Amino acid sequence: MGTHLVVKAWGEQARKAATGALKEIRRIEGLMSAFRRFSDVYRLNRHAGVSPVRISPDTMKVLEYAVEVSRMSLGAFDITAGPLISLWRRSIASSALPGASMLDAAMAFKDIFSLKLQPDKGRGYLSGRGQTIDLGGIAKGYAADKATEVFRRFGLRSGLIDIGGNIAVYGFREDGRPWHIGVQSPDGERGEVLGVVEVVDKAVVTSGDYERFFETGGEKYHHIIDPRTGYPARSGLRSVTVVADHGLAADAVSTAAFVLGLDGGAELIRRAGADAIFVMEDGGIYVTRALLGAFRHVTGGVVKTI
Ligand code: AMP
Ligand code: MG
User: Fold this and answer.
1) Centroid of ligand 1 to alpha carbon of 85 (angstroms)
2) Theoretical Cys-Cys bridge with 6: which of 37, 162, 265, 275, CB 3.0 to 4.6 Å?
3) CB 105: neighbour CB atoms within 10 A?
4) CA 221 to CA 200: how far, in whole Å?
5) Atom 23 (ligand 1) nearest CA
């Protein structure tokens, strides 16, 4: 999926389970990448404004949940912002700001209501010509869930999947203790953590402004876009790490919460039945109440609850 991928597995069938999990992750990518020719998303986008297309039950599930999070976040999460997301992706690649007319044009394509889903028929339709959807903010979490299902099928004792920072842990660690998952320090080297959260059977997914960005005129432009303004989100957060039972929810909700900021994000996370760690621009750290005992701030600063 254009990012790093780690699979760890312990148990009698560990090798088979790990191979199966990798295969499953590639299968999901083959369905949901906008760049893979003939993927579900590729065909939905290609036929936008022209005709409905057949989509797999996996893609249907992700699209339905994406629409739900779009609604719950009042549009802060919007997979139909595809043209806008592509525009900023090119911008980041070339370190040049998009022109105002390009931004206006890309904004005009965004409309979650033009994504029509018929789950009973296995069909989806993007009704506006030129519209595209982008599952970059949600598909990795789902892939992690599917990989975890493979672990379960093989009766693993313990396992971990990391798809570009979308982590899912299965069971306890091999030594019988909870997993310790690091929360990246926004300005540190990759792998340098500011805190650690202890989890068992959970998905742990981070959205941060340090993952893909460029700087110009003293401003930072990153890859999480606020569909309401057309610009990279400026909500006072450096990152949000969501802890949930499922990667699908954790991934979508972390991206949405990053756009919404601390208060709106915490509210959404509560409604999604999840927990989170927020790292603020001013260095403050907030955790939802249930994580207070599970999160350790390694640099020793104060942790507030939200
Ligand atoms: P994540 O790292 O999970 O927060 O996802 C970031 C990716 O999600 C971006 O690279 C885009 O592909 C996509 N994306 C960016 N902004 C949004 C948004 N507001 N709603 C939905 N997807 C988004
Ligand atoms: Mg996400």
Assistant:
1) 8
2) 162
3) 15
4) 35
5) 137
